[in-house]
Amino acid sequence: MLTTALTEMFDLQHPIILGPMGGVSGGELAAAVSNAGGLGMVGGGYGDPAWLRTELTRVKNATQRPWGAGLITWAANPVVLDLVLECRPHALMLSFGDPRPYAAAIKSAGCKLICQVQGLEEVRLAQEAGADLIVAEGTEAGGHGGGRATLPLVPAVVDAVAPTPVVAAGGIADGRGLAAALMLGAHGALIGTRFYASAEALGHDGAKQRIVAARGDQTRRTRVFDLIRGYAWPPDYTGRAIRNGFLERWGGRETQLAHVLETERVGYQAAARDGDCDTAVVWAGEAVDLIKSIESASALVARISAQAEAQLRLGAILIRTDGDCAT
């Protein structure tokens, strides 16, 4: 059994956090991950109150284990924050923006504050907010993120915030990735795309099948899907998605797209409703190469953790002392 500061903080069996993917990580998926011994997180997205009430109620009713929720910081507001905190999550994760205005309310509610960062400047803000746990997200991650790669970012954040525990994110989809994160000094992994391709995840089956079929080099960081959907993301954060017809048509032509948004948006919205993944976005990270099937979340949690333990034992075998060498 893997024991880290993350597992001890939330009394987990496995050092795995579900990435709070907006529109994907609903209450059923969050509860499944928590019931399996990880930390399930509901993805609050852009803060739709009706959706949040439904999914937060669902996770509360489906698990007695610790769970949490995640909000996009720049899109959050006190009303949405109060709505989430009223449901008594064990953790609340803030990503993509300054967490300091919301930190006091989160902590006074007896909730652990998790801050996701993509660089060292955001680390400073997380520390000033009093983060209990910091997620270092590399650019390999699906959905929105920054430009730093996971491998060098994680130990840099670990060094910068010690003794605050760090969790790694970005490009982790199996036990080898979790083991690598632990060796970089992290206390666990936040995993998104692998759980998108799970039975309990929200979203169209076609999107899940796209993830299973995709290769890492078929993903790309882009702004076109935010532009067509009308979301004013800060310029530092692009989104990694699987290449499709819409991205091939408009990638690199954002200025031209801006001039025809009114007409293009009608078709895009229809495609999103119908699950037409050749037009609608499928956020996914570079680790899609490692995803071969759609499985239950509980099976994924158990296997990823077991793989990590086996990988760490294998690594120990590589160490030899002078007495082990043949004469």
Task: Characterise the protein shown here.
With 327 residues, this protein is an alpha/beta fold. The chain has a domain at 5-203 and 293-317: Alpha-Beta Barrel (TIM Barrel), CATH 3.20.20.70. 44% of the residues lie in helices and 15% in strands. The protein has helices spanning 5-10, 27-35, 49-62, 78-86, 100-108, 120-129, 150-161, 175-183, 193-196, 205-213, 224-229, 245-250, 254-259, 261-274, 297-317, and strands at residues 16-18, 40-43, 67-72, 91-95, 112-117, 133-137, 143-145, 166-169, 189-191, 219-222, 238-242. Helix 8 packs across helix 15 (297-317). The longest helix is centred in the last third of the chain and has 21 residues, at 297-317. The two termini are 37 Å apart.
Short description:
The protein has 327 residues and is α/β, with parallel strands linked by helices. 44% of the residues lie in helices and 15% in strands.
